[in-house]
Design goal:
heterodimer; A: 120 residues; mainly alpha; three-stranded antiparallel sheet; 3 strands; elongated; B: 161 residues; alpha+beta; eight-stranded antiparallel sheet; globular
Chain lengths: 120, 161
């Protein structure tokens, strides 16, 4: 119980940042490669101030980094802060993956019984 | 077929602070997935995920009906989950409440949706907790197995000292 509180506290910032669907969308777009802010605005179909606001939140938790290239501001993703979240989720995902693998086997059995019945 | 199955990880995302979303496609018709999901003798064959043995599976598939799954984990301790059926749309949707019995004050509402893909079935499991703390604890319940492994390892090391 104490463990869960401590863990939540260390990942709070990145967690909050990715709780917003638009910010996850921005990370998805940037995951494919570095982009200038104009491209992000265009692809998201949002007004520039909104995009800038989301980018600011993402920069504050270091999920996104920026550099100037001429007159353009280029944004890129920095996955580091997501690592604790990914690790935290991994055990749970593994549980369900194994559970569903077993379910595949049950379904294979049911399909056989089902097909057998159809043929007879 | 086996090659694609190897890729079939359960995809887990956290859409909001209080939700967990689990998605997975199955190579079987929807009526069979529904049966495997709702009939006690079939649930008993997959829900344990090889992490222990099923002690009992009860499923009273009626609105207001109770369900209870009990497993003896490989570490020897029993874990029990239970709740009620809230909404049942046969083959399509099952809404249940769920508690992990040691923490009965943190109930969740789980919506299982079964979508006919033509050549298979997509299962979407949305778990909604009342609080973020409850959600986080739920995710961490998946770690128990890892924790047990760690404890066994520690025990082995201690014996060598």
């Amino acid at each position: 119980m104490i463990c869960s509180v401590a863990r939540a506290a260390t990942t709070t910032d990145a967690f909050n940042a990715i709780a917003e669907p638009r910010r996850r969308q921005i990370l998805d777009l940037l995951a494919a490669g570095e982009l200038p802010v104009n491209d992000l605005v265009e692809r998201l179909g949002l007004a520039q101030p909104q995009v800038s606001k989301h980018l600011r939140v993402l920069r504050e938790v270091d999920l996104v980094r920026v550099r100037d290239e001429g007159r353009q501001r280029m944004y890129r993703v920095n996955g580091g802060p997501l690592r604790p979240i990914v690790d935290w989720l991994a055990g749970f995902e593994q549980l369900w993956t194994e559970r569903f693998d077993r379910l595949d086997a049950v379904l294979d059995q049911l399909k056989e019984e089902h097909d057998g019945r159809d043929e007879s | 077929m086996d090659a694609t199955r190897a890729d079939r990880r359960a995809v887990v995302t956290l859409p909001t602070d209080t939700q967990i979303l689990i998605t997975r496609d199955f190579d079987a018709p929807r009526e069979l997935v529904w049966r495997a999901w709702t009939e006690a003798d079939l649930i008993a064959q997959w829900w344990h995920a090889d992490r222990g043995e099923i002690v009992s599976i009860e499923m009273d598939l009626r609105v207001g009906g109770s369900w209870r799954y009990v497993m003896r984990a490989n570490g020897g301790f029993e874990v029990a989950f239970s709740g009620q059926c809230r909404e049942i749309v046969p083959l399509e949707r099952l809404v249940t409440t769920e508690i992990y019995e040691p923490v009965p004050d943190q109930p969740a509402v789980t919506t299982a949706t079964f979508e006919d893909l033509g050549n298979g079935t997509r299962v979407t499991l949305l778990v909604e907790h009342a609080s973020r703390a409850g959600r986080d604890m739920h995710v961490e319940s998946g770690m128990e197995d890892g924790l047990q492994d760690a404890l066994r390892l520690l025990e082995g090391v201690a014996q060598q000292l």
